[in-house]
Amino acid sequence: MLRDIHDEIFRQDDWGTPAQYIPELANVPSNRFAMSVCLANGECLNVGAADDPFSIQSVSKVFSLAATLGRIGDQLWSRVGREPSGTSFDSVVLLEREKGRPRNPFVNAGAIVTTDVLLSGRQPKQALAEILGLVRTLAETDDIHINERVAASEKSTGARNKALAHYLQSHGNLENAPDLTLGTYFHQCAIEMTTRQLALAGRSLARLATGPNVISPRHARRINALMMTCGHYDGSGEFAYQVGLPGKSGVGGGILVIAPKVASIAIWSPGLNHYGNSHAGTRAAAMLARATGWSVF
Question: Do 121 and 187 contact (CB within 8 A), yes or no?
C-alpha cells in the first residue's frame, strides 16, 4: 500500500515549493518523498527517503507542548488559547486583537510562549536539552540533532517572529528576554529527524503499546485534539476533511499524523502548498486514510 502511494506521488509529479524565506530550506529539492508508518503490533513500514534527515520545524511544537504540559500542566492555558486561528501561522492580526494571548500553541506566537515557559529559570541549552531529550526518548535513539545552519538561517530571516515576540512582551506574556526565547525557539525548530524516527516518536501520542509511552494519556488526548483543530493552521479544516486524523505540519515539509491506538505516521516532502503545509505529503496522507479507512470520525 505504501509503495503504491509512493509511486502515485511520483506519477503526479506535483510537488509545491520549498519554504523560500528560510535559505537553508529553500535549497532542498522539492521532489523528495518519504513515509513511515508504525503499527500497533510493533511493525514499522517505510518507503522513499525514510532515512534522510530533514528539518522538522513546527512539528517540534508537538514535543515542546508535551514537555510544557508535563512541566506546568493546565497553567499553560492562562497564557495560550486552544482555538483554531483561521489565519497564517505567523500572523500578528489575532495577537493584536486578543491582547497578546495567542490563539493556540501551534501558531508561531503560541509556540514562542510555550518555549518561553520551558526556558523560564533555565539557560537555553537546558530547555533545548529537555525537548531534544524527550524526542530522543520517544524515538529510542540518540541520533537526533539540531542543525545549527538552519537555526542561524531562521535567526537571520526571522523578523516576523521577532515582531511577535516583542508584541508578546509588550502585553506581559513573555517572561524572558525576546532574544533568549527566540534563540531557543529557532534551535527547537531546527531539530532534524527522519520519517522513521518521527513515526517512532509519535507512538506515545497514538497510545501504541510498543515504545516508551512517556506522554500521559490525558496530555496525549489533548495534544491530538489540538493537532486536529490547529495542526495545519488555516488549512486545518481542509486537512481534517481530506484525512480525518490529527496531524501537525512543518514548513520543512514534514507531517506527523496520528491514528489513535492504530498507527503513528510520518511523511516528508519539502514542497509546500499555499497554506505552508507539505503539498505531496498532504495528498499522501489523504491516500493512506482512504486506503486504510483510518479516521477519528
Answer: no
HEC states along 33-92?
Answer: CEEEEEECCCCEEEEECCCCCEECHHHHHHHHHHHHHHHHHHHHHHCCCCCCCCCCCCCC
Cβ atoms of residues 284 and 267 within 8 Å: yes
For residue 13, count other CB atoms closer than 10 A to its CB: 8
E-strand stretches of 149-205: 191-193
> 58-191 in CATH: which number?
3.40.710.10
Burial class of residue 259 in the structure, from the number of CB atoms within 10 Å of its CB (0-12 exposed, 13-18 middle, 19+ buried): buried
Residues 6 or more apart whose Cβ sits within 8 Å of residue 133: none
Cα–Cα distance, 244 to 206 (Å, whole number):
14
Is the distance from CB of 212 to CB of 204 less than 8 angstroms? yes
Phi, psi angles (nearest 5°) of residue 275: -85, -15
Computed from CA positions of residues 175, 176, 179, 183, in that sequence, does the dihedral angle turn out positive or negative? negative
Give the pLDDT score at 175: 96
Fold observed for domain 2-54+193-292: Beta-lactamase (3.40.710)
Residues labelled catalytic: 58, 61, 185, 233, 251
Query: What residues form DSSP beta bridges with 55?
Result: 192
Question: What mean pLDDT value characterizes the chain?
Answer: 95
Measured between alpha carbons, how far is 24 from 155 in angstroms, rounded to an integer? 11
The CB-side HSE value for 254 (13 A sphere, CA atoms) comes to 32
Pick the closest to residue 16 from 239, 274, 251, 233 (CA basis): 274
- With a cut of 50, list the residues of the chain below it in pLDDT: none
Domain boundaries defined on the chain? 2-54+193-292, 58-191
Q: How far apart are CA 127 and CA 184, in angstroms?
A: 8
**Could you tell me if 66 and 135 are in contact, meaning their C-beta atoms sit under 8 angstroms apart?**
no
